[in-house]
Protein backbone atom coordinates (compact mmCIF):
# COMPACT_ATOMS: atom_id res chain seq x y z
CA UNK A 1 0.00 0.00 0.00
CA UNK A 2 1.22 3.52 -0.79
CA UNK A 3 2.40 5.53 2.17
CA UNK A 4 1.08 8.90 3.25
CA UNK A 5 4.58 10.29 3.49
CA UNK A 6 7.06 12.19 1.37
CA UNK A 7 10.80 12.73 1.50
CA UNK A 8 11.89 16.38 1.18
CA UNK A 9 15.42 16.94 -0.10
CA UNK A 10 17.33 19.85 -1.62
CA UNK A 11 19.99 20.45 -4.24
CA UNK A 12 22.41 21.88 -1.68
CA UNK A 13 22.94 23.73 1.59
CA UNK A 14 21.11 26.96 2.36
CA UNK A 15 18.48 26.38 -0.33
CA UNK A 16 15.74 26.69 2.31
CA UNK A 17 14.71 23.11 2.92
CA UNK A 18 13.76 23.64 6.56
CA UNK A 19 11.73 26.74 5.67
CA UNK A 20 9.81 24.77 3.04
CA UNK A 21 9.25 21.88 5.45
CA UNK A 22 7.81 24.27 8.05
CA UNK A 23 5.22 25.51 5.57
CA UNK A 24 4.44 22.03 4.30
CA UNK A 25 3.91 20.63 7.79
CA UNK A 26 1.72 23.56 8.81
CA UNK A 27 -0.47 23.14 5.72
CA UNK A 28 -0.69 19.37 6.16
CA UNK A 29 -1.86 19.82 9.76
CA UNK A 30 -4.93 21.56 8.30
CA UNK A 31 -5.64 18.51 6.11
CA UNK A 32 -4.79 15.63 8.46
CA UNK A 33 -5.52 14.89 12.11
CA UNK A 34 -1.99 13.76 12.94
CA UNK A 35 1.13 14.79 11.04
CA UNK A 36 4.51 13.28 11.76
CA UNK A 37 8.04 14.55 11.18
CA UNK A 38 11.37 12.74 11.05
CA UNK A 39 14.89 13.76 10.06
CA UNK A 40 16.52 10.35 9.57
CA UNK A 41 20.11 11.59 9.34
CA UNK A 42 21.14 14.77 11.13
CA UNK A 43 24.37 16.72 11.26
CA UNK A 44 23.80 19.96 13.20
CA UNK A 45 22.62 18.85 16.60
CA UNK A 46 22.18 19.88 20.22
CA UNK A 47 22.04 17.97 23.50
CA UNK A 48 18.75 18.12 25.40
CA UNK A 49 18.46 18.47 29.16
CA UNK A 50 18.24 14.69 29.61
CA UNK A 51 21.39 14.15 27.53
CA UNK A 52 19.74 13.09 24.25
CA UNK A 53 21.55 14.24 21.11
CA UNK A 54 18.95 15.61 18.67
CA UNK A 55 19.06 17.29 15.27
CA UNK A 56 18.24 21.01 15.49
CA UNK A 57 15.41 20.74 12.98
CA UNK A 58 13.77 17.93 14.94
CA UNK A 59 13.70 20.18 18.00
CA UNK A 60 12.25 23.06 15.97
CA UNK A 61 9.41 20.93 14.58
CA UNK A 62 8.77 19.07 17.83
CA UNK A 63 8.40 22.21 19.94
CA UNK A 64 6.73 24.58 17.48
CA UNK A 65 4.09 22.10 16.31
CA UNK A 66 3.81 20.35 19.70
CA UNK A 67 4.30 16.96 18.03
CA UNK A 68 3.62 14.02 20.40
CA UNK A 69 6.66 12.12 19.14
CA UNK A 70 9.86 11.10 20.95
CA UNK A 71 13.11 12.76 19.89
CA UNK A 72 14.71 9.35 19.48
CA UNK A 73 12.30 8.61 16.61
CA UNK A 74 12.29 12.10 15.08
CA UNK A 75 16.10 12.13 14.97
CA UNK A 76 17.28 8.49 14.91
CA UNK A 77 20.78 8.98 13.45
CA UNK A 78 23.21 11.82 14.16
CA UNK A 79 26.58 12.18 12.41
CA UNK A 80 29.05 13.78 14.85
CA UNK A 81 32.57 14.67 13.70
CA UNK A 82 34.05 11.19 14.25
CA UNK A 83 31.10 9.17 12.94
CA UNK A 84 32.47 8.67 9.42
CA UNK A 85 35.81 7.36 10.68
CA UNK A 86 34.09 4.97 13.08
CA UNK A 87 31.98 3.70 10.19
CA UNK A 88 35.02 3.16 7.96
CA UNK A 89 36.81 1.42 10.85
CA UNK A 90 33.91 -1.04 11.04
CA UNK A 91 32.69 0.14 14.44
CA UNK A 92 29.28 1.03 12.98
CA UNK A 93 27.47 -0.97 10.29
CA UNK A 94 25.21 0.35 7.54
CA UNK A 95 22.69 -2.35 8.52
CA UNK A 96 22.49 -0.94 12.06
CA UNK A 97 21.98 2.60 10.71
CA UNK A 98 19.30 1.42 8.30
CA UNK A 99 17.47 -0.54 11.00
CA UNK A 100 17.45 2.45 13.33
CA UNK A 101 16.02 4.71 10.62
CA UNK A 102 13.43 2.23 9.36
CA UNK A 103 12.19 1.37 12.86
CA UNK A 104 11.85 5.04 13.82
CA UNK A 105 10.01 5.87 10.61
CA UNK A 106 7.63 2.94 11.04
CA UNK A 107 6.71 4.05 14.56
CA UNK A 108 6.08 7.64 13.46
CA UNK A 109 4.17 6.61 10.33
CA UNK A 110 1.93 4.31 12.37
CA UNK A 111 0.97 7.26 14.60
CA UNK A 112 0.43 9.75 11.75
CA UNK A 113 -2.00 10.38 8.92
CA UNK A 114 0.84 11.97 6.96
CA UNK A 115 4.59 12.05 7.59
CA UNK A 116 7.17 14.57 6.39
CA UNK A 117 10.70 13.16 6.10
CA UNK A 118 13.40 15.83 5.87
CA UNK A 119 16.74 15.03 4.27
CA UNK A 120 20.10 16.63 5.00
CA UNK A 121 22.13 18.65 2.51
CA UNK A 122 22.00 17.65 -1.15
CA UNK A 123 20.77 14.24 -2.27
CA UNK A 124 24.25 12.70 -2.20
CA UNK A 125 25.05 13.68 1.40
CA UNK A 126 25.64 10.54 3.46
CA UNK A 127 27.00 8.45 0.60
CA UNK A 128 30.18 7.63 2.48
CA UNK A 129 28.14 5.69 5.07
CA UNK A 130 25.91 4.19 2.32
CA UNK A 131 22.96 6.23 3.57
CA UNK A 132 22.51 9.27 1.36
CA UNK A 133 19.11 10.90 0.97
CA UNK A 134 18.15 8.83 -2.08
CA UNK A 135 19.21 5.60 -0.37
CA UNK A 136 17.17 6.47 2.72
CA UNK A 137 14.12 7.36 0.62
CA UNK A 138 14.48 4.07 -1.26
CA UNK A 139 14.66 2.03 1.94
CA UNK A 140 11.58 3.80 3.29
CA UNK A 141 9.75 3.34 -0.01
CA UNK A 142 9.06 7.07 -0.45
CA UNK A 143 8.78 9.47 -3.35
CA UNK A 144 10.90 12.60 -3.15
CA UNK A 145 10.23 16.31 -3.48
CA UNK A 146 13.32 18.25 -4.53
CA UNK A 147 13.88 21.88 -3.57
CA UNK A 148 16.09 24.05 -5.76
CA UNK A 149 17.17 27.67 -5.68
CA UNK A 150 15.09 30.09 -7.71
CA UNK A 151 17.02 30.26 -10.96
CA UNK A 152 16.75 28.68 -14.38
CA UNK A 153 19.87 27.24 -16.01
CA UNK A 154 22.05 26.74 -12.93
CA UNK A 155 19.10 25.42 -10.93
CA UNK A 156 18.25 22.92 -13.67
CA UNK A 157 21.88 21.73 -13.73
CA UNK A 158 21.85 21.19 -9.96
CA UNK A 159 18.57 19.31 -10.20
CA UNK A 160 20.01 17.10 -12.96
CA UNK A 161 22.76 15.86 -10.66
CA UNK A 162 20.39 15.18 -7.78
CA UNK A 163 17.73 13.53 -9.93
CA UNK A 164 20.37 11.23 -11.40
CA UNK A 165 21.22 9.97 -7.90
CA UNK A 166 17.52 9.45 -7.15
CA UNK A 167 16.96 7.44 -10.31
CA UNK A 168 20.09 5.38 -9.71
CA UNK A 169 18.51 4.31 -6.42
CA UNK A 170 15.03 3.74 -7.84
CA UNK A 171 13.47 6.79 -6.18
CA UNK A 172 10.73 8.69 -7.98
CA UNK A 173 10.94 12.48 -7.85
CA UNK A 174 7.34 13.54 -7.34
CA UNK A 175 7.76 17.26 -7.84
CA UNK A 176 10.06 20.27 -7.79
CA UNK A 177 9.79 23.30 -5.52
CA UNK A 178 11.80 26.41 -6.34
CA UNK A 179 12.66 28.63 -3.39
CA UNK A 180 13.94 32.22 -3.03
CA UNK A 181 12.58 33.23 -6.43
CA UNK A 182 13.17 36.93 -7.08
CA UNK A 183 10.05 38.94 -7.92
CA UNK A 184 11.50 40.23 -11.18
CA UNK A 185 12.17 36.64 -12.34
CA UNK A 186 9.00 34.98 -11.09
CA UNK A 187 6.93 35.25 -14.28
CA UNK A 188 9.83 34.01 -16.39
CA UNK A 189 10.46 31.06 -14.05
CA UNK A 190 6.78 30.08 -14.05
CA UNK A 191 6.74 30.13 -17.84
CA UNK A 192 10.00 28.36 -18.64
CA UNK A 193 10.77 25.99 -15.77
CA UNK A 194 7.80 23.69 -16.44
CA UNK A 195 9.00 23.49 -20.05
CA UNK A 196 12.47 22.49 -18.86
CA UNK A 197 11.02 19.81 -16.58
CA UNK A 198 9.02 18.12 -19.35
CA UNK A 199 11.98 15.97 -20.39
CA UNK A 200 11.95 14.41 -16.91
CA UNK A 201 8.17 14.23 -16.60
CA UNK A 202 8.33 15.99 -13.25
CA UNK A 203 5.91 18.82 -12.34
CA UNK A 204 6.78 22.15 -10.76
CA UNK A 205 4.58 22.18 -7.65
CA UNK A 206 5.92 25.28 -5.90
CA UNK A 207 7.50 28.64 -6.65
CA UNK A 208 8.26 30.37 -3.35
CA UNK A 209 9.37 34.02 -3.55
CA UNK A 210 12.48 35.41 -1.91
CA UNK A 211 11.72 37.02 1.45
CA UNK A 212 14.40 39.26 2.92
CA UNK A 213 13.09 38.99 6.47
CA UNK A 214 13.59 35.21 6.55
CA UNK A 215 17.30 35.71 5.86
CA UNK A 216 17.83 38.50 8.37
CA UNK A 217 19.95 37.41 11.36
CA UNK A 218 19.07 38.31 14.92
CA UNK A 219 21.51 39.32 17.63
CA UNK A 220 21.14 35.75 18.92
CA UNK A 221 22.60 34.50 15.64
CA UNK A 222 25.65 36.69 16.20
CA UNK A 223 26.02 35.44 19.77
CA UNK A 224 26.38 31.97 18.29
CA UNK A 225 28.57 33.13 15.41
CA UNK A 226 31.10 34.79 17.74
CA UNK A 227 30.63 32.27 20.59
CA UNK A 228 29.81 34.97 23.10
CA UNK A 229 26.90 36.27 25.18
CA UNK A 230 25.15 39.62 25.30
CA UNK A 231 26.46 42.26 27.65
CA UNK A 232 22.96 43.74 27.85
CA UNK A 233 19.56 43.66 26.17
CA UNK A 234 18.89 39.94 26.66
CA UNK A 235 15.15 40.46 26.13
CA UNK A 236 15.90 41.58 22.56
CA UNK A 237 17.86 38.51 21.48
CA UNK A 238 15.46 37.89 18.59
CA UNK A 239 15.41 41.45 17.29
CA UNK A 240 15.83 41.73 13.52
CA UNK A 241 17.66 44.65 11.92
CA UNK A 242 16.84 46.49 8.71
CA UNK A 243 20.53 47.02 7.99
CA UNK A 244 24.04 46.49 9.34
CA UNK A 245 26.79 49.10 9.25
CA UNK A 246 30.47 49.26 10.13
CA UNK A 247 31.09 52.54 11.98
CA UNK A 248 34.71 53.67 12.10
CA UNK A 249 34.55 57.33 10.99
CA UNK A 250 33.91 60.57 12.83
CA UNK A 251 31.27 60.97 15.51
CA UNK A 252 29.65 63.85 13.60
CA UNK A 253 29.35 61.71 10.49
CA UNK A 254 27.73 58.89 12.47
CA UNK A 255 25.29 61.23 14.25
CA UNK A 256 24.24 62.71 10.91
CA UNK A 257 23.32 59.29 9.54
CA UNK A 258 21.92 57.47 12.58
CA UNK A 259 18.93 55.29 11.70
CA UNK A 260 16.53 53.20 13.78
CA UNK A 261 16.59 49.40 13.72
CA UNK A 262 20.25 49.34 12.67
CA UNK A 263 22.98 47.01 13.89
CA UNK A 264 26.29 48.83 14.10
CA UNK A 265 29.72 47.20 14.28
CA UNK A 266 32.38 49.39 15.87
CA UNK A 267 35.62 48.97 17.87
CA UNK A 268 35.18 48.75 21.64
CA UNK A 269 37.51 51.75 22.04
CA UNK A 270 35.07 54.02 20.13
CA UNK A 271 33.22 55.03 23.26
CA UNK A 272 32.05 58.24 21.55
CA UNK A 273 30.12 56.21 18.94
CA UNK A 274 28.81 53.71 21.47
CA UNK A 275 27.59 56.35 23.94
CA UNK A 276 25.95 58.34 21.14
CA UNK A 277 23.99 55.23 20.20
CA UNK A 278 22.96 54.53 23.80
CA UNK A 279 21.97 58.19 24.23
CA UNK A 280 19.76 58.05 21.13
CA UNK A 281 17.97 54.97 22.47
CA UNK A 282 17.41 56.75 25.78
CA UNK A 283 16.24 59.97 24.09
CA UNK A 284 13.73 58.21 21.84
CA UNK A 285 12.25 56.34 24.77
CA UNK A 286 12.05 59.41 27.00
CA UNK A 287 10.76 61.91 24.44
CA UNK A 288 8.68 59.75 22.11
CA UNK A 289 8.17 56.55 24.10
CA UNK A 290 9.58 54.71 21.07
CA UNK A 291 12.28 52.06 21.00
CA UNK A 292 15.09 52.97 18.58
CA UNK A 293 15.42 49.19 18.10
CA UNK A 294 19.15 49.18 17.44
CA UNK A 295 21.98 46.87 18.42
CA UNK A 296 25.76 46.99 18.71
CA UNK A 297 28.61 44.54 18.08
CA UNK A 298 31.83 45.69 19.73
CA UNK A 299 35.10 44.51 18.18
CA UNK A 300 38.92 44.67 18.67
CA UNK A 301 41.28 42.56 20.75
CA UNK A 302 41.01 44.97 23.65
CA UNK A 303 37.67 44.51 25.46
CA UNK A 304 35.43 47.41 26.44
CA UNK A 305 36.34 49.23 29.65
CA UNK A 306 34.57 48.43 32.90
CA UNK A 307 32.99 51.89 32.96
CA UNK A 308 31.60 51.43 29.44
CA UNK A 309 30.25 47.97 30.31
CA UNK A 310 28.44 49.48 33.28
CA UNK A 311 26.79 52.08 31.03
CA UNK A 312 25.84 49.41 28.50
CA UNK A 313 24.29 47.22 31.19
CA UNK A 314 22.23 50.18 32.38
CA UNK A 315 20.71 50.45 28.91
CA UNK A 316 18.14 48.24 27.22
CA UNK A 317 20.21 47.91 24.04
CA UNK A 318 21.41 44.47 22.86
CA UNK A 319 25.21 44.69 22.81
CA UNK A 320 27.84 41.97 22.47
CA UNK A 321 31.63 41.92 22.28
CA UNK A 322 33.57 39.90 19.70
CA UNK A 323 37.36 39.79 20.38
CA UNK A 324 38.58 40.29 16.81
CA UNK A 325 39.14 43.19 14.45
CA UNK A 326 36.19 44.89 12.76
CA UNK A 327 37.26 43.69 9.31
CA UNK A 328 37.26 40.02 10.37
CA UNK A 329 33.95 40.47 12.20
CA UNK A 330 32.32 42.01 9.13
CA UNK A 331 33.71 39.23 6.95
CA UNK A 332 32.15 36.60 9.22
CA UNK A 333 28.85 38.47 9.34
CA UNK A 334 28.72 38.89 5.56
CA UNK A 335 29.22 35.17 4.96
CA UNK A 336 26.84 34.07 7.71
CA UNK A 337 23.56 32.37 6.79
CA UNK A 338 20.83 32.82 9.36
CA UNK A 339 18.80 29.74 10.31
CA UNK A 340 15.25 29.67 11.61
CA UNK A 341 15.11 29.05 15.36
CA UNK A 342 12.13 27.86 17.36
CA UNK A 343 12.22 30.93 19.61
CA UNK A 344 12.00 33.29 16.63
CA UNK A 345 8.22 33.02 16.37
CA UNK A 346 7.73 35.92 13.95
CA UNK A 347 10.16 34.38 11.47
CA UNK A 348 8.65 30.90 11.77
CA UNK A 349 5.14 32.22 11.23
CA UNK A 350 6.16 34.30 8.22
CA UNK A 351 7.98 31.32 6.68
CA UNK A 352 4.87 29.17 7.09
CA UNK A 353 2.57 31.76 5.52
CA UNK A 354 4.91 32.28 2.56
CA UNK A 355 5.23 28.58 1.80
CA UNK A 356 1.55 27.76 2.27
CA UNK A 357 0.60 30.39 -0.30
CA UNK A 358 3.00 29.18 -2.98
CA UNK A 359 2.85 25.37 -3.07
CA UNK A 360 0.29 23.14 -4.80
CA UNK A 361 -0.74 20.88 -1.92
CA UNK A 362 -3.21 18.97 -4.06
CA UNK A 363 -0.24 17.83 -6.17
CA UNK A 364 1.79 17.06 -3.05
CA UNK A 365 -0.97 14.87 -1.59
CA UNK A 366 -2.32 13.32 -4.81
CA UNK A 367 -1.32 9.77 -3.79
CA UNK A 368 -2.83 9.91 -0.32
CA UNK A 369 -5.19 7.20 0.77
CA UNK A 370 -7.84 7.54 3.46
CA UNK A 371 -6.85 6.50 6.95
CA UNK A 372 -9.03 6.43 10.02
CA UNK A 373 -8.47 9.13 12.59
CA UNK A 374 -5.64 8.36 14.97
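Q: What amino acid sequence fits the structure above?
A:
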Amino acid sequence: MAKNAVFIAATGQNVGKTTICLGILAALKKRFNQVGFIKPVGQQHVTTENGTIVDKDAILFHEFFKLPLPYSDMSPVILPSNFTRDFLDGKISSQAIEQRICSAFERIENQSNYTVVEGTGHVGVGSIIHMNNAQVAARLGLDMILIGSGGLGSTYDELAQNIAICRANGVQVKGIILNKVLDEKRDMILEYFPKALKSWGIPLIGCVPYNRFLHTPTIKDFELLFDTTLIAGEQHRYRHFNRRRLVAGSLDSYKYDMLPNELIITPACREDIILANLDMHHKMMQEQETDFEGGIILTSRKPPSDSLIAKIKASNVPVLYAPLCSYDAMKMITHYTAKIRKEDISKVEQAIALVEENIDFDALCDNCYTRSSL
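Q: And what stands out in the fold?
A: The mean pLDDT is 91.
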